């Protein structure tokens, strides 16, 4: 069993930055694929970025490429999402997820709100 707790969300102005953190508890964190999803009001949840155990990150939403970086620190059981040049379209609840492989996310955090004002 893995428990995930996100932090770092908040309200920023357009062009600002935030770094989200997701602290994981439980065994085998270093072997899990980790992902960040987001869900905006009235929209479906979408995968923003994911990173495998070997720290190979991918960014799954074209609109965030070049602005968002996913990373992980296995010694701290933590995954991060650095977001720069935030835009109002990035406003959403951001969720951390974990699973045994890409596309196999089984565990979810409670979410953290990111709001970007214009």
**What is the strand tally?**
11
Order of helices and strands: EEEEEEEEEEE
Return residue spans where pLDDT drops below 50 for at least 5 consecutive residues: none
The helix content, as a percent range, equals under 10%
Tally of alpha and pi helices = 0
- Class from secondary-structure proportions: mainly beta
Q: N- to C-terminal separation?
A: 40 Å
Mean pLDDT: 91
> Which percent band covers the strand fraction?
over 45%
Outline type: globular
What Rg, in angstroms, do the CA atoms define? 13 Å
How does the major sheet shape up? 7 strands, mixed
Description:
The protein is an all-beta fold. The protein contains no helices and eleven strands. Strands 2, 4, 5, 6, 9, 10 and 11 form a seven-stranded mixed sheet that branches. The mean pLDDT is about 90.
Give me a quick take on this structure.
The protein is mainly beta.
Q: What is the topology?
A:
Layout: E1 3-7, E2 10-13, E3 18-25, E4 33-39, E5 46-51, E6 57-59, E7 68-73, E8 78-83, E9 92-99, E10 107-108, E11 112-117
List its salient traits:
single chain, 118 residues, mainly beta, seven-stranded mixed β-sheet, four-stranded antiparallel β-sheet, 11 strands, globular
């Amino acid at each position: 069993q893995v428990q995930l707790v996100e932090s770092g969300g908040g309200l920023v102005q357009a062009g600002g930055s935030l770094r989200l953190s997701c602290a994981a508890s439980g065994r085998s964190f270093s072997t899990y694929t980790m992902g960040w999803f987001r869900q905006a009001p009235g929209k479906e949840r979408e995968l923003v970025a994911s990173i495998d155990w070997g720290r190979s990150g991918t960014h799954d939403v074209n609109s965030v490429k070049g602005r968002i970086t996913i990373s992980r620190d296995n010694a701290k059981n933590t995954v991060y999402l650095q977001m720069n040049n935030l835009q109002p379209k990035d406003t959403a609840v951001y969720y951390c997820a974990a699973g045994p492989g890409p596309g196999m996310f089984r565990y979810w955090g409670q979410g953290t709100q990111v709001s970007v004002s214009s």
